[in-house]
Amino acid sequence: MAERTRRRRGGRRSTHDENVDEPIREMSIASLGSSHRAHDPDQASPLVASTHLRTAREWPVECPRMIYVLRNLGLHNIRHLQFIRLDHNLITALVERWCPLTNTFHFTVGEMTITLQDVQVILGLRIDGPAVVGLNVVGLGRRWESWPDCCDELLGTHPGRETVYHAPGDEDDTATFRMGSSQFESMLPLRWLRWTFYRDSYEQLAPGPFLYHVRAYILFMIGCFLIPDTSRSHVSLQWLPLLMDVESFGQLSIGSAVLAHLYRELCNATRPTRTYIAGCVALLQVWSWERLYIGRPTLRVPQIHDLGGRPLGCRWAEDRIRELPSGNTLTYRDEFDGLRLSQVCMTPYTDDILATLPAECLEGIEIWRARVPLISWKRTEWHLPDRVMRQFGGIQFTDVRPMELNFRRIDGRGRADLDWTVQYRDYLEIWEDRRAYVVAITRPEGTGNQELGTYLRWYRSWASIYLLQPQTEPPETFFPRSPGERLVADYYIRSSAILEPLAGVKDKMPVHYNRPGRSQHRPGTIRPKGSAWSPFRAIAWTIFSTVPIGLADVSNRPGRCMQKITWSKTGLKLELNSTDRPRTIPDRPGRYWSRS
């Protein structure tokens, strides 16, 4: 394929396909090579979400005065959304499927992504409003000469390096704070915000001090939940000048800024060396739970009529779920490799569900399918619903346009004096005219299987959708990759242990097992180089290290025999001739338990 490489501003290089008839050939994850963690996922670092949900829970808001103001700003729902337990292994497996060239996940069933619809339905944030970008107002000759001056006017105070602060309710817990590590002092410690401005009631505050507390709480939630960065302890002061007029801040498109920031963090997290992922990771996980059966917990109350006027994401809070899967990255990776259409819910937001949601979850419905740039101050990312029209109930066609051939991701590093309203002028114009860029939808006639088959054949012809590669040599230990393999392996070992007393075998566990079959590999033999090894074609395990799922630990309790096997709606039950209650193997798609 003919390619050309051209120098861009800033010394970076970008490769583009000269053949305009096949621009999509460069849109696969494989084209990114070793710069993407999917190139060698086993060598990439596991990801940890750099969010502060636990810290956010330390600032509960129950005061009616504060709730009233937050409701008018469209931010009152965020106080209910911090109680979501994160699955870091699931998040890592999702990032391995993220393609920065399309801002979509590349699954075996097609492309999927988080859209403006998901942001508004799950979080209840405003998406239809001016973009979140502003002027540089701090510096010599500007409104404030320094960030401490800005804090003094908008918050009433700023962290003093020599000041000792006490935690609310615990005078023995003390600390000193700094405004970031740079000389510009452009960061605020999240803990300082809580220690300084948290209180049980704000009713007795005068209007001025009360406004300080409102700004502090919003800034705190931006750094903890909505737009956290990888600092893991601070929030950027760039958001504070936007809060000078609190009512105007409430009219901004906060939801699009949250999505733009999450898109960028997903792109950054695809680098093999990255160990943290920032952004609103709770949105990513709830989106996965709503649309995919992999790693999804069980809801205690599946109906949503009891949400009390809250957004849909609240139904996944910790007190509403049970049996949260505890999978590992390898397990999720295998399940995504085998993902089927029956394990995906492309349109989870049915009319019945939307009818129960509050008005703030639906007010931007006109721009849910807008193909526009999303702006989050110094970052901009493309929102491409035309690549995932099936998520809106439409037909996905194959003539999709690339993101933008000359698109370049930049941020604020080394650009302290850059006017972002000028830098993103073209993008801002598109966003202001966002209703003109709404993608038309074509509903399928009948089942739509023919159109779906056409799309999947086209998609699978260029997308790299499988991450796991067959091994060429048998491993010394066998680790089941999926619930199916774990169940088979567990049954194999347990059966031998159960029959051991009957056979009179003295040794509890043989050194190795040779499964009969057409293709066997015995210890000491050499397999042809390059031949694929499979645990179901040839098994020779000198060590078989597995964790049982749902079965009683029979191997460690000699003399107990299986008495009865029954099958119920909840799974397979093994009853032992003991007083222990039966154990159950859950049998639900996309679940992974590790119980011993």
TrEMBL record:
<dbReference type="InterPro" id="IPR019557">
    <property type="entry name" value="AminoTfrase-like_pln_mobile"/>
</dbReference>
<feature type="compositionally biased region" description="Basic and acidic residues">
    <location>
        <begin position="14"/>
        <end position="24"/>
    </location>
</feature>
<feature type="domain" description="Aminotransferase-like plant mobile">
    <location>
        <begin position="74"/>
        <end position="460"/>
    </location>
</feature>
<dbReference type="InterPro" id="IPR044824">
    <property type="entry name" value="MAIN-like"/>
</dbReference>
<feature type="compositionally biased region" description="Basic residues">
    <location>
        <begin position="1"/>
        <end position="13"/>
    </location>
</feature>
<feature type="region of interest" description="Disordered">
    <location>
        <begin position="1"/>
        <end position="24"/>
    </location>
</feature>
<dbReference type="GO" id="GO:0010073">
    <property type="term" value="P:meristem maintenance"/>
</dbReference>
<dbReference type="Pfam" id="PF10536">
    <property type="entry name" value="PMD"/>
</dbReference>
<protein>
    <recommendedName>
        <fullName>Aminotransferase-like plant mobile domain-containing protein</fullName>
    </recommendedName>
</protein>
